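--- STAGE predict ---
source: upstream dedup step, 1 unique chain passed
mode: sequence only
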Amino acid sequence: MSNRRRTVVAVAFGGRSVEHDVSIVTGHQIMRAFPNDRYEVVPIYISREGKWFTGAPLQELDAFADENTLARDGVVPCVLSPDTRHHGLILNPLAGRFQMSQIKRLDVVFPALHGSHGEDGSLQGLLELADVPYVGVATLGSALTNDKIMTKQVLRQAGIPVLEDCGFSRESWLNDPDAILEEIRERFGFPLFIKPATLGSSIGIGRADSESMLQSSIDIAANFDRRILVEPAVVNGIEINCAVLGIGASYQASTLEQPVSWDAFLSYEDKYLRGEEGMKSAERLIPAPIDEALARRIQQFSIDAFRAVDGRGIARLDFLVRPDSDEIYLNEINTMPGSLAFYLWREDGMSAAQLVEQLVQYARDAHAEKRRNIYDYRTNLVAVASQRGIKGSKRK
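--- STAGE serialize ---
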């Protein structure tokens, strides 16, 4: 038997986001994928209020079926320390007289959080401060791809086809809705899609076939985000999805899928509530029944788009396609796809265990690359400033 130490991987899930429940499912799918003989999996559950917890009971999905999850024996509060000396979690950070705080060192953190405060660069920034390797896109790319309006601007610069759009703030909508409605009328016809700028899982998204529906959908979206996106619908189009895996200059695109929706678009219910295990149980056609040349174009667009946002690790890219005319529009980049798109990589011969292990290796590679940077640059500036005074240091 090998005495090699198991790699300690913390999987963070839950979070202060409307996609909290989806994240719990994704987190447990990821934890189940790691081989026990080579990895020690540490669950990190972040509550809806933003409180952090860890402990073995959190690895059981049925523990979240009631409100007593956090009262179970073995569940303890924790925080991720930004201090590089700790390199991991502080357990019982507010320990009293009869308790003791402990340090749980982590080799890698695997964020499985969707949307706000997890997929938007927030957690990634904390992990950068802590100097802990982490899976997935870095802070800049996470923040960028989480914002649909900003993502489109970058993709246009990179030559990736995207739909025209009208983006505006909640404040602008509340102050002068007539001006925004007039701009939308002048630029687009119906039907339209209305989206919060930074959410996923189809939450807050509406389709409008009339001006009254448009106003109502904007009002709903404005409850979920301070910025709203309106874009024309692709009539007679289909959705085609492609996953991308890689780091640096090396990327690979997966087999394509065509999700099958019961509605005008793939709703939250279609994605997560019509099956038993999240996105991987949704109705889909794999491989997507489209022309081979069209499929290759979509795969290349996927790689080019992931590279344009400085992607690393994994992402799923969702396209809107008119097969009769070969029109392609990149609709969204998901840097933490539901189920990690396990079902797509399986079609290419990669198991769930192989996928999560590859992602952990990418995390370590990215961390090693970061450590090539110089961060300690010492000068006598402070000594000079203390002698001259702060204002004096600017004088000639």
